[in-house]
């Protein structure tokens, strides 16, 4: 069958690699893809937001399945356009993707259906938000309602920072209309875990757990980024936590969305905080995480296309998800300066080293071809993933593999997976 992947980052390279492993896939396309994806798929220069062109391409090329991977097109309703055209696509339609597209929506949903999460209030104007903050307990968390490249969340330690945060989001509009409305949320402490789940509208099946490292610098310092590295599984995600979340978070969420007339078909990403009072939802995303996909998919034993088919056809209850008993660690190689300004266009050396190495992966994020050479083309450039018998070994392997590639301005965190040591 012919498969089109919409997107062009590390997550999409991991999805493309996993599709390529499927015996059922005869031809793979990506829009727009990147230099790494172009080695296994035909890349077409169509923006992820250009629904008419994507639909036309899928029709002309008789695509059997389109996987819409990023948040923006899902929240904007690109999956709806595929459905209208009678084309098979994987990813929630707009009225379900709102679970990621509006933090106010997701908080109200959790409240209504008793899904554990932090206490919150929603505000449409800055004066009311500031009046509320005057009496609130610090630290406190401000969240832009809409999509903000994963950067619309501000953790404020005191009233001054919180007032400044309201100004940034609501008055200076740093994230545009995403900050017209904000959620002000209780600050939670604990371990963070990401659990990505396949959903068919009624049944929800969690994949292996993962943990992201969002801050730019070691020891969780610096600005929030899209993610600087991940590991899977999370040693903090115990069987007990899993049992609790299956019942009170995952199934509760999918039931709530169905009850609201918004059946969710696609990947539901539950960002969890394991607090002293039990697991609570930090956020939902309506898609695979990036870089979470880069550690979870290499561990997955199932044929991805079979599972996606089951999600679309409503037969997920018949599927048993299986993950290798190995661990995986992904270290992001970024351009120095990310998530702020950085230079790009530098040639990348050493990529061939990965070709014959089992259990090692070099997923491309911000790369492109220039004069026949792969060059840097983004903040997050490559995701270096390695597997190992346990997390310590996987981490050692991943950091070893980061040495195989070089480019000017290469930057990485040196403590991805460091928390693992506490459990040994
Ligand atoms: P989000 O995009 O909502 O996941 O937020 C980004 C990051 O901000 C999360 O991964 C957490 O590290 C942090 N965060 C979000 N909400 C809270 C909260 N209520 N308490 C503490 N940290 C939070
Ligand atoms: N790594 C977090 C995300 O994909 O949103």
The helicity comes to: 25-40%
Number of helical stretches of at least 4 residues: 12
The first-to-last residue Cα distance is 45 Å
Report low-confidence residues grouped into runs of 5 or more: none
- The dominant shape is globular
Proportion of residues in extended strands: 25-35%
Secondary structure category: alpha+beta
Major sheet details: 6 strands, antiparallel
Listed once per kind, the bound small molecules are: adenosine monophosphate, glycine
Mean pLDDT reading: 96
Number of strands: 23
- The radius of gyration is 21 Å
Write structural notes for this entry.
The chain is an alpha+beta fold. Helix content is 29%, strand content 27%. The protein contains 12 helices and 23 strands. The strands form 6 sheets. Strands 12, 15, 18, 19, 22 and 23 form a 6-stranded antiparallel sheet that branches. It is globular and about 60 Å long. It starts with a strand and ends in a 13-residue tail after the last strand. It binds adenosine monophosphate and glycine. Residues 150, 212, 227, 285, 289-290, 292 line the site of glycine (GLY).
